[in-house]
Amino acid sequence: MPLSVSVQAADFDVAALQRALLQGAQAEGAVASFTGYVRSVNEQRNVAVMELEHYPGMTQKSIMAILEQSASRWPVLAASVVHRIGRLETGEQIVWVGVASAHRAAAFSACEFIMDFLKDRAPFWKKELGAEGAHWVDARAEDEARVARWHDKPAR
Amino acid sequence: MLRVLFFARIREQLDCASLEVEWGEGVASLDALQAQLAAQHSQLWADVLGQDNIIRAVNQDVVSDNCALADGDEVAFFPPVTGG
């Protein structure tokens, strides 16, 4: 089934991505998607601009591995991730995850699974630039906990 | 030769994005490489590479334990990831 990953500086059009996903799935049924945006306030800090760094090569490879895992777990017809890098302003789109499946349950679950693992595994780093200066965003224990709950056995 | 990469906060703290290390017995494992990098430069490098939340990847796969390194491997050191 079509699995795709794009890591790009350019903004993206959610409607166009969803159409492409459905074409790839070649089936009617369901699409679940998630779009993430740059927050204006993060952990009490005002954010004007975000800089997103990544590890070229490993980023694509790690997200593709997550998509493959999702497809082995649910009847996924197509799944795509688009993640932006570089300089992003408050309110801009950062990430899009779309999953097509024959029924909603698999689409919802796979979409959430992909996003949870992406946040915990894909090598991206956010640096906030605001009035208080530059600040590397810290990883959140909550994100790790969200990944752990997908494991059948106690994680790692 | 080993290709060594640093990202995000660690890259900034070391003021170094990448370097090359001659492969040999002294850097034949991940722990040995990290120890050599920490010892060979300055106290700053020792402090930064001594942090306990550093994630290590070999050939673009995260490794949680020590592992052997072969000539030509790509090794990366980075802080916990914060994408999405």
Properties at a glance:
heterodimer, A: 156 residues, alpha+beta, Aldehyde Oxidoreductase, domain 3, four-stranded mixed sheet, four-stranded antiparallel sheet, globular, B: 84 residues, Ubiquitin-like (UB roll), five-stranded mixed sheet, 5 strands
Describe what this molecule looks like in 3D.
The complex is a heterodimer of chains A (about 160) and B (about 80). Helix content of chain A is about 35%, strand content about 35%. Chain A has about 160 residues and is an alpha+beta fold. Chain A has a single domain (about 5-150), classed as Aldehyde Oxidoreductase, domain 3 (Alpha-Beta Complex), CATH 3.90.1170. Chain A is globular, with a radius of gyration of 16 Å. The mean pLDDT of chain A is about 90. Chain B has a single domain (about 1-80), classed as Roll (Ubiquitin-like (UB roll)), CATH 3.10.20.30. Chain B has helices at about 10-15, 30-40, 45-50, and strands spanning about 1-5, 20, 55-60, 60-65, 75-80. The interface of A and B includes residues 95, 115, 120, 126 and 136 of A.
Summarize the structure in short:
Chain A is of the alpha+beta class and 156 residues long. Chain A has four helices and ten strands, in the order E-H-E-E-E-E-H-E-E-E-H-E-E-H.
